[in-house]
Amino acid sequence: MTEETKDYIEYTLETDSELRFEIEDKDAKVQVMLFSGFAEMFGTELVKKKKYNFGCGAKVAIFTYQGCVLHLWGKTDVSYISKETPMVQYLNCHAALEQLRTQAEEKDERGPIAMVVGPTDVGKSTLCRILLNYAVRLGRRPLYADTDVGQGALSIPGTIGTILVERPASIEDGLSMTAPLVYHFGYKTPSGNNTLYKAVVSKMAEVTLESMNVNKKTKHSGIIINTCGWVKGDGYAILAHTAQAFEVNAVFVLDQERLYNELLRDMPSFVRVVLLSKSGGVVERSKEQRAEARDQRIKEYFYGSKTPFYPFSFEVKFQDLKLYKIGAPPLPDSCMPIGMKAEDNKTKLVAVTPSSSLLHHILAVSFAESNEDDVIGTNVAGFVCVTDVDMERQAITILSPQPRPLPNTLLLLSDLQFMDSHA
Ligand code: ATP
């Protein structure tokens, strides 16, 4: 009797182990199915017998607490089972947060506000996703504040934002991004303008804390905060600032004892600081890969990913642009008007005269209508990209998710650029 040839690979996972795989081939199509047992991906449960699709760029871990059998179709670049995972530690963090949520519920207080910190490529975003998923699986409705401007995962790079998490992240598409509250910063790292970054974080923290009061469920569920991987010097000062602005009461430090000890020393005593291991599965990214991921994120903003979007392209006359940037070139204190410090310049709104240097730049469409408004503290409606500058006709062409006309609000120049290869 000939044995039936299988077109998939079968993986049998023991308790507390995970199947990790990566896909690098542009045309690769990989499918995974939970055949038996229980399994989850970054905190989202897999439905039995359902095939999940993964494409190029996927870096995945499917974990099981109880043991399971997985079937995998297609070509992966790396795939192996690991029994060394920090998932039980992460589950304990969730349990601790859950205890705080129950207490918050009993006393009708704010639930836990937890910040995840660590250097680059330690799995900060992944831990946030796991903690959020575990919370919603228990019926919680936490807020997710992402202050990592480099990835801009809730919107586009150069921004920070908050969303309300109401359901577990989709296995294939990640967290649902409905109605994020987004703030413009304009650089891919906080070092682009530290002072401005802190000001924007403070504003977002204030609004996020206020929005906890909108309903009891969210108030008791708390906030999970993701941060940038810049943890030394000014980067550390920024983390401390973020912790203070959000009034955090727990900090999860991934993989770095030095950072853990600094935070233990500097955080007020009511803040629990916990050191956690990094998963061996977290994939490191080179500078080029990060740049590519940023570009991809912006492309998805305009053109969609699985569901395609059809952006608009239209001309706007220079005279119709209310274009500004935040931060004037630094002047020494001695040159500043009396009563102002050089630092103040960094959060100053400066009118921008349109020129060819705008080409490819992202412009944030602010909700602020006038330069008299608190522009830094106002969230943004969306983004457009400058695809052409015609100095003769005194007009720019923009790529926009919305048809013309542009809303009659301020546009804020971002340092980030996007080359529209579709145009
Ligand atoms: P950054 O420094 O850019 O902020 P980070 O610390 O937030 O990165 P993540 O984005 O969470 O790190 O993880 C980096 C990549 O590793 C992601 O693509 C994620 O899917 C993958 N990854 C995380 N955990 C695992 C794991 N256990 N096995 C395989 N891949 C993983």
From TrEMBL:
The keyword Ion transport does not apply. The keyword Nucleotide-binding applies. Transmembrane segments: none annotated. Keywords: ATP-binding, mRNA processing, Nucleotide-binding, Nucleus. Its main location: nucleus. Residues 118-304 form the Clp1 P-loop domain. It holds the Pfam family Clp1. It is found in: Nucleus. One of its GO terms (cellular component) is mRNA cleavage factor complex. GO terms for molecular function: ATP binding; polynucleotide 5'-hydroxyl-kinase activity. Residues 310-420 form the Clp1 C-terminal domain. GO terms for biological process: brain development; mRNA 3'-end processing; tRNA splicing, via endonucleolytic cleavage and ligation. ATP binds at E18, K59, D121, V122, G123, K124, S125, T126. InterPro entries: Clp1, Clp1/Grc3, Clp1_C, Clp1_C_sf, Clp1_N, Clp1_N_sf, CLP1_P, P-loop_NTPase. Residues 12-104 form the Clp1 N-terminal domain. HAMAP family: Clp1. Required for endonucleolytic cleavage during polyadenylation-dependent pre-mRNA 3'-end formation. Belongs to the Clp1 family. Clp1 subfamily. This is Protein CLP1 homolog. It comes from Musca domestica (House fly). The gene is 101894426.
